[in-house]
């Protein structure tokens, strides 16, 4: 058991060493000038740009803008998915009525709705919220419907035997049983929320990192561009980490042995 | 979904009501708008675009961009995924690097690709390739790891070399799950390539729908919207059909995760 632990730690250390090596090679390539610094700034320059950007507050504002777009679009989609999904999931007739429409909308590339949203709402934050909500709604809605429609039938019988009212049944039995599916849908959607925020910011010039990196590229300020890309990577990593942690916490009761 | 096999009439009501309602509303209210077009005009625009070949040419460009990126990124990702699964030491060593690069949203690399490749297929291959690479890498790794351990024992008993084990035992055993991974990567590649075209790249379906919007041609814009939906639907349905005919139930079990 102890040797396994040592192996894990050694593996983790080796893995960080490899990552450091990759950054070092990046630095060497950038220093050698084999690739023009116009396209590939060294990690030192990107890091310096990151610090400068945060010191002047520019990057902080852009990061906040992107997070805001992501969060509001995702929130709207989550609320809609839970409300609509519970109604559709609990009634087979409703399920039959909406399934074909959902099957058409699900594989539709979400960004295709951007021109429509621009036509309706112009280049505004509302447009971004709509696009992100539209793009993240379908996976959440489908998994919520699945969660609500696959409640163990015996639990309903238990509820009836215990004479629990309808609302109480939903709150105490249906919702907890559908929760894992709802949360899984919400987790998957975070990634597409980030992608769509970046795209909307690029197209509409809204405050956010997507716009920031696009402008940096147009002005050939590649250290700023790489700093923005690194930040977006960090947002991608942290947002899915936070949602996974929240998911594990909310579902903790499942692992405590039924 | 509906195991009954007969047509789901109930499900047809909602889309039909939407289309008819839009048509009636726009016709009777006499609204003049640059944003919406009655569905009848959308159908006319769609048929017109299909007949004069513009829609098909744009579709071809989008699919070329998508599948080119899928081919390059997907095959590299699959190869590396197999290596990672077969040689765990490499997997451990690369963990931090992969986990640091993977969460970078693919579209964040758009400006970089724009600077390096300029407009055209190059940037599309690069961005689509990045997305497909990581998706295939992760899914292939778990597919190969999920191979029944007893099969590995058989390989050891037969004293097969590592290469022979991979080629003769592991790959055939993980083929159904590899196809599922390929199917997911293929639908992702279409989504990403259209996104790239809508954002910056002036070619293909994404660019066409943006131009139609800017030219205040709502009929053409909605026609492209419907067409993009149909292309996505057909791609998914075709891949699902291929999966069912090729692998039957073997791939289905993996899907219900």
Automatic annotation (TrEMBL), chain A:
Topology relative to the membrane: Multi-pass membrane protein
Q: Where exactly are the transmembrane stretches of this chain?
A: 6-26, 71-92, 112-138, 193-213, 225-246
Please provide the record's keywords in A-Z order. Answer: Cell membrane, Membrane, Transmembrane, Transmembrane helix, Transport
- GO biological process per UniProt: transmembrane transport
Residue ranges annotated for the ABC transmembrane type-1 domain, each copy included: 67-247
Q: Which GO terms describe its cellular component?
A: plasma membrane
Where is this chain primarily localised? membrane
Membrane as a keyword of this entry, yes or no, is yes
SUPFAM superfamilies noted in UniProt:
MetI-like (SSF161098)
Q: CDD domains from the entry?
A: TM_PBP2
**Which PROSITE patterns would you find in this protein's record?**
ABC_TM1
| Compartmental location | Cell membrane
Q: State the name under which the record lists this protein.
A: ABC-type nitrate/sulfonate/bicarbonate transport system, permease component
Q: Species name for this entry?
A: Gemmobacter megaterium
Its taxonomic path starts at: Bacteria, Pseudomonadati, Pseudomonadota, Alphaproteobacteria, Rhodobacterales
TrEMBL record, chain B:
User: Which membrane topology term applies here?
Assistant: Multi-pass membrane protein
Q: Cellular component GO terms, alphabetically?
A: plasma membrane
The record's section on SUPFAM superfamilies has: MetI-like
Q: Which residues cross the membrane?
A: 7-26, 38-60, 67-90, 110-140, 178-200, 220-242
For this UniProt record, the keywords arranged alphabetically read as follows:
Cell membrane, Membrane, Transmembrane, Transmembrane helix, Transport
Task: Tell me a GO biological process for this protein.
Answer: cellular response to sulfur starvation
Keyword set includes Repressor: no
Which CDD domains did the record assign? TM_PBP2
This protein's major location comes to membrane
UniProt xrefs under InterPro entries:
MetI-like (IPR000515), MetI-like_sf (IPR035906)
Q: Where in the cell is it found?
A: Cell membrane
User: Which protein family is named in the record?
Assistant: Belongs to the binding-protein-dependent transport system permease family.
Which PANTHER family has this protein been placed in? Answer: ALKANE SULFONATE ABC TRANSPORTER-RELATED, MEMBRANE SUBUNIT, TAURINE TRANSPORT SYSTEM PERMEASE PROTEIN TAUC
Q: What is this protein called?
A: NitT/TauT family transport system permease protein
Q: State the organism named in the record.
A: Gemmobacter megaterium
């Amino acid at each position: 058991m102890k040797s396994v632990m040592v192996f894990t730690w050694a593996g983790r250390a080796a893995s960080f060493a490899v990552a450091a090596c990759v950054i070092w090679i990046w630095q060497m390539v950038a220093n050698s000038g084999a690739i023009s610094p116009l396209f590939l700034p060294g990690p030192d320059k990107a890091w310096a740009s990151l610090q400068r950007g945060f010191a002047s507050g520019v990057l902080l504002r852009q990061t906040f803008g992107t997070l805001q777009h992501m969060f509001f679009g995702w929130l709207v989609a989550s609320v809609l998915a839970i409300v609509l999904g519970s109604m559709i999931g609990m009634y087979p007739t409703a399920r039959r009525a909406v399934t074909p429409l959902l099957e058409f909308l699900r594989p539709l590339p979400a960004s295709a709705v951007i021109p429509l949203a621009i036509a309706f709402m112009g280049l505004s934050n509302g447009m971004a919220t709509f696009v992100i909500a539209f793009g993240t709604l379908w996976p959440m809605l489908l998994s919520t419907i699945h969660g609500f429609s696959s409640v163990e039938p015996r639990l309903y019988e238990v509820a009836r035997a215990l004479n629990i009212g309808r609302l109480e049944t939903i709150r105490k039995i249906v919702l907890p049983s559908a929760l894992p599916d709802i949360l899984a849908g919400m987790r998957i959607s975070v990634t597409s929320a980030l992608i769509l925020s970046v795209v909307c910011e690029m197209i509409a010039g809204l405050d956010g990192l997507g716009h920031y990196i696009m402008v940096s590229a147009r002005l050939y300020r590649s250290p700023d561009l790489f700093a923005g890309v690194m930040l977006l990577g960090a947002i991608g990593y942290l947002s899915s980490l936070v949602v996974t942690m929240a998911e594990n916490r909310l579902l903790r009761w499942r692992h405590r042995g039924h | 979904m509906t195991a009954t096999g007969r047509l789901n009439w109930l499900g047809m009501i909602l889309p039909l009501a939407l289309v008819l309602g839009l048509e009636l509303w726009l016709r009777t209210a006499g609204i003049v708008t640059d944003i919406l077009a009655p569905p009848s005009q959308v159908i006319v625009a769609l048929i017109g675009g299909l007949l004069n070949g513009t829609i098909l040419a744009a579709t071809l460009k989008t699919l070329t961009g998508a599948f080119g990126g899928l081919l390059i990124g997907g095959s590299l990702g699959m190869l590396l995924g197999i290596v990672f699964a077969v040689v765990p030491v490499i997997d451990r060593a690369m963990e931090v690097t992969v986990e640091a690069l993977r969460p970078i949203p693919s579209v964040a690399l758009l400006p970089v690709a724009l600077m390096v490749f300029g407009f055209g297929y190059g940037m599309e291959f690069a961005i689509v390739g990045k997305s497909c690479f990581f998706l295939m890498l992760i899914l292939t790794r778990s597919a190969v790891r999920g191979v029944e351990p007893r099969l590995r024992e058989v390989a050891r008993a037969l004293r097969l070399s590592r290469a022979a084990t991979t080629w003769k035992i592991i790959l055939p055993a993980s083929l159904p799950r590899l196809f599922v991974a390929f199917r997911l990567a293929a639908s992702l590649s279409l989504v990403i390539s259209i996104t790239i075209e809508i954002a910056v790249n002036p070619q293909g379906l994404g660019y066409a729908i943006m131009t139609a919007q800017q030219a205040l041609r709502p009929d053409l814009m909605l026609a492209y919207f419907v067409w993009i939906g149909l292309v996505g639907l057909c791609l998914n349905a075709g891949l699902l059909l291929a999966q069912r005919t090729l692998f039957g139930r073997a791939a289905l079990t993996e899907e219900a995760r």
